[in-house]
Specification:
This protein is mainly β and about 100 residues long. Helix content is about 10%, strand content about 40%. The N and C termini lie close together (about 10 Å).
């Protein structure tokens, strides 16, 4: 499923917390949290998504759900976000696709 629209991306701090996929997550892991509808009651746990921002690309693993995210929007772990932009940016517009 390709998200053809640019979607809002922010970051959050998993900090060794237990993600919705029932495993501890680290700030240093390339983790993504999906909106509740795309999380699909855990059906997408541990799938990978490719994220594009400007001329940069990262691969992140779905490990959590973002209950406050609109459909298509994602939250990234700090290290994943920082690979694309500085944390000071706060929110960036990306495109992403399941791999």
């Amino acid at each position: 499923m390709l998200c053809t629209l640019e979607t809002a991306t922010t970051y959050y701090d998993p900090n060794d917390g237990l993600g919705a996929c029932d495993a501890p997550l680290q700030n240093t892991d390339f983790i993504v949290a999906l909106s509740a509808d795309q999380y699909a009651n855990g059906a997408n746990c541990w799938r990978h998504i490719g994220i594009n921002y400007q001329s940069q690309f990262i691969d992140a693993t779905i490990g959590d759900m973002c209950p406050g995210c609109n459909s298509g929007s994602i939250d990234l772990s700090p290290v994943a976000f920082e690979t694309l932009a500085t944390l000071d940016a706060g929110r960036i517009q990306v495109t992403w696709d399941f791999e």
